[in-house]
Amino acid sequence: DAINYLAASFCNEKKLIKKYDNQSDENALDINSEKNSFVWDMRYDDAKGFDGLIMWAASLRGPIASPGQYYVKLTVNEKSEEQSFNILKDPRSNSTDEDLKEQFDFLLSVRDKVSDIHQTIIDIRSSRSQLIDLKSKISDKYPDMENSISDVISRITLIEEKLYQTKNRSGQDPLNFPIRLNNKLAHLSSVASVGNFKPTDQMYNVRDELIGLIDKELKMWEDIKENDLVKLNSKKELLIYSYRVAGTVGLMMAKILNVTSSDSLKSAIDLGIAMQLTNISRDVIEDSKNKRFYI
Description:
The chain is an alpha+beta fold and 295 residues long. The protein has 5 helices and 4 strands, in the order E-E-E-E-H-H-H-H-H. Strand 3 (68-76) and strand 4 form a beta hairpin. The mean pLDDT is 90.
């Protein structure tokens, strides 16, 4: 029968490690009409990256699975078969299975934290882009909101610059600009993955110190997301609502009165928004007196 779907899934203790299939772009599984073979490199997923990422003496490469029992599940169309297999320690290694498991756990913890950093940078860049766009659209008649946006942009940019060297543009730039927290932690992974040995006490100390500094920045980002961005979004939504229910009315009335000046049209919109905000403020007071609370 024709093979429409083919997948190979690798698991440890029934937990999915990696999946390859012929419909995936990231972990593609190529097939032909004759004989097929596939060799798993025994690596877990890489750390998350982002466009333009440049690091010095470090990579995103995921750790190699430690010795133990694993499972592979082969799926062809709608039929599946599962088989267990063992990954064995290199017989030349003097390390124990426990040592190699400790090395794996260490590298996995570093990989996950590097992914957290890079996801935060992606989120910061997306939020900053939206804030800059919002700032360009609001009128200078809203200085408080404009100042709040500028403040948030400044603070999240500082967080990004502590996590990543934003001046990097080429592979040689780290020679001119000091590496930041993401690169330091990723480099530790590169060092700790050399050979088949458990991490040293110094490696643990460096990891824990770096993660402490990283978590401080990540917490500041979470606080900004949960507080400042929520407030800005609320103000943005309020202005959008006011524009739609009243600013558009002001614009329509200006058009009916044959107003053509762009400044006058903007003022008509602002007047409509101001009247709607005044109306909302009046209703809040009236509702409060009548024991009605909505906000």
